[in-house]
Each structure stands twice: as structure tokens, then as C-alpha cells.
Amino acid sequence: MAESKPQPGGTQSSAERSGGNGGDSLEPYGARPAEPVVAGRARRGMFGVSGTGDTSGYGGLRLPAYVPPAAERPYGGWFDEFVDDFLAALDENGIPRDAIQQITVDRGEITFYVRREHLVGVCRTLRDDGALRFEFCSSVSGVDFGEDVPQRLHSTYHLTSMTYRRRIRLEVCVDVDDPHVPSIVDVYPAADWQEREAWDMFGIIYDGHPGLTRILMPDDWEGHPQRKDYPLGGIPVEYKGTEVPPPDQRRAYS
Known about the structure:
This protein is an alpha+beta fold. The chain has helices at about 80-90, 120-130, 190-200; strands spanning about 45, 60-65, 100-105, 110-115, 135-145, 155-160, 165-175, 180, 205, 235-240, 240-245. The strands form 4 sheets. Strands 3-4-7-6-5 form a 5-stranded mixed beta sheet. A hairpin with a 4-residue loop joins β6 (about 155-160) and β7. It starts with about 40 loop residues before the first strand and ends in a 10-residue tail after the last strand.
């Protein structure tokens, strides 16, 4: 007889245990923080330039900042059952529920904003608990929302449960003056090169990473090219003593 497929909340999962530090109640917590996460900013014009005599009309565009609001129950679909199991597992592992800054549901995806000091414990709980089983971290990436946004750097994690065919997203927000986030390589080894890329492009420092070196740019490169305040072009680029001139000064081959 074939083995039955595991079900969320089954044997040895957090759902059949008491609420741990939070008592027997599984009442959700953390979806409405006192200080909501801020991300995004209003944009003026299509390309961020002014004073050019633009006649295309793109310079007159006004795009308001879009920030998905904190979600409230019911979240819909499998999200409610999952959040109950998740919070119960946090209780059992001694992780405070306020480790989750905010829960957002947008475009069919659930996102948990996690305080950085609890990131590794949250990831280990999501991986190991029988009701959760997020065995695979498919992506680690960085986002820079620009100079006018508090905690402008975000480290984003996409986790996949191959057992239950579910996907969630975690985000950690940090200031550009203190861009430290704990590495999750010990929990998800596949995050190794992805954290290196986020460091290389955005300057997010992953504490505890086994070898946080550049992966796309040369080792002696200065700056992080995907930050919003990084020059877009027209600067000399050096590779081991050889200078590549700006595009308008390069030799023409046609």
C-alpha cells in the first residue's frame, strides 16, 4: 500500500500541540504592527531626468508610491491555516511572535516581514516543523527603494514547500547605514551564492556567510551597482589597470 501524502497539521506537526509560550490559543498576532513597514516612493517622470526639453510626455508622468497594506484575517485560501501552524511553531521554538513585523497578502502571495535578529530561527522553524516543511530556498535577492525611504534596503527570500506545494516570501528591512542581515546559509546552503550577489549588487552584509565576496563584479570594484544612488553611466571603469571609457568616447568599429 502506497504511503499517504502528508497533510498540513498532521502527525508530529505544531498544529496538534498546544500554543507553547502563547498558551492554547492560536489567535494570530503580528498582522497589524504599531509601525508598518515603509517601502516605495512616488515617482515623477519616467526616467528620473529633468530640464531636458522632453517632448515625449513621459517627463510629465506622476506615479504614486504603492505599498501593499498590512493584511488582516481572513487572508484567504490556505493562508489562514498556514499562519496558525506557523505561529504555533514559533511559540514552540521560543521565538516571539513579534519577530513577524507585518504580514502582507498581495497579488496572491503572502509575505512575512521578519525582524533580522530572528531571521535564522524563523527559517529553521519553517524548514523543520512538520506542518510547514519549507525545504527549499529558491531565491535570495535585494531591493533598494531609494534615498528618501527609511530602511530602504530589503533582503527578500522565496521559500518553497515541496511537500505541500506552497510558496511564501520573507523580507528583512535594514537601513543603508547599518545593512547587516544574518546569513541563512547554515539553514539553506543554496543561499550561498545568492547572498553573495545581493552583497555585490546592493551592499547588504550577510553576517556569518562563509565567504562573502563579489560574484558578478571584479574583486576591486567600488560601490554596489544596483543601488538607486549609483551612477547610471558616463564614468570610467577600470579592470586591473585597463580603463574602459564612457560609451560616447569609445572607438567606433562601423
